[in-house]
Inverse folding.
């Protein structure tokens, strides 16, 4: 870039072109949607299988799989931070949002332990909806927005269904709000970087 | 009456760096180099000028044993950028009030 004097119009054009270049500058975050998407999906399917096929009393042990999600998040989170060459206000907002949602999941575990788990999945699904919808709006990615809306609908539906069906409904909600948008997000990021 | 343009900002590479940094929280040297297509030497000189003017903060650290230079715009830099853009507007709309 030359250092010669330039006109006000060229200054405006330069400012606009540089600001444009910072759009979509954030690193690919699809790994977190895919990691948690598959962990929760697998836990749902496993719990359903343990409860309804094997009739195992401690079927909820399937949710120990979230340890894999926590360990994976810590690993990929640290890698993500080291590899990121730019931090945008949007990526920081998304991080804060998911941190808040993560803490809410943790708090809910104690609440359900006290009041009972009968309708716990409705609350989990509605949290997926909030996270995906807001993230989708922030990063302007429609599949996440639609995934969030779909999860809201399933959260309402789940209130009218029994516990066992809700396990499968949770698997369906994670599929539409995390897994499918996660793969589409990864594809979009790869297209941008080619 | 035309407003005087800040000579620190009225330089293509320094203005490009400020425009990138104004839109993000912070950015690494490699990001600025990639987006401006500048040489490392020239970019380094211009970053130092912006730093000396108090428009940006430069943090040097190590990540995975590699040196890392992180730049972020300072409140003084945001203020100078706003004044610069208003001055540009007065050039673009000489009969108006620069709004």
């Amino acid at each position: 870039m030359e250092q010669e004097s330039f006109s006000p119009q060229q200054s405006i054009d330069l400012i606009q072109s540089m600001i444009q270049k910072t759009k979509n500058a954030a690193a690919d975050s699809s790994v977190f949607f895919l990691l948690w998407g598959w962990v929760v999906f697998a836990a749902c399917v496993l719990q359903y299988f343990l409860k309804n096929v094997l009739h195992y009393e401690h079927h909820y042990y399937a949710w120990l799989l979230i340890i894999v999600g926590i360990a994976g998040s810590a690993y990929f989170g640290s890698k993500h931070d080291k590899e990121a060459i730019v931090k945008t206000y949007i990526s920081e907002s998304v991080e804060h949002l998911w941190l808040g949602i993560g803490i809410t999941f943790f708090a809910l575990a104690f609440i359900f332990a006290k009041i009972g788990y009968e309708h716990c999945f409705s609350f989990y699904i509605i949290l997926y909806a909030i996270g995906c919808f807001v993230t989708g709006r922030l990063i302007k990615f429609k599949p996440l927005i639609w995934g969030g809306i779909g999860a809201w609908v399933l959260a309402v539906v789940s209130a009218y269904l029994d516990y066992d069906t809700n396990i499968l409904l949770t698997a369906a909600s994670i599929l539409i709000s995390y897994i499918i948008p996660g793969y589409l997000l990864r594809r979009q990021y790869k297209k941008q970087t080619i | 009456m035309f407003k005087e343009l800040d000579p620190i900002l009225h330089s293509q590479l320094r203005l490009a760096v400020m425009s990138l940094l104004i839109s993000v929280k912070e950015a690494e040297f490699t990001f600025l180099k990639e987006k401006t297509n500048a040489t490392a030497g020239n970019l380094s000189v211009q970053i130092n000028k912006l730093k000396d003017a108090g428009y940006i903060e430069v943090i040097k650290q190590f990540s995975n044993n590699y040196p890392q230079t992180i730049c972020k715009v300072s409140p003084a830099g945001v203020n100078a950028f706003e004044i610069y853009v208003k001055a540009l507007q007065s050039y673009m709309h000489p009969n108006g009030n620069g709004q």
Observations:
- The helical segments of chain B are 12-23, 29-36, 40-52, 75-92.
- The CA atoms of residues 14 and 47 of chain B lie 7 Å apart.
- The first helix of chain B runs from residue 12 to 23.
- Chain B has a mean pLDDT of 89.
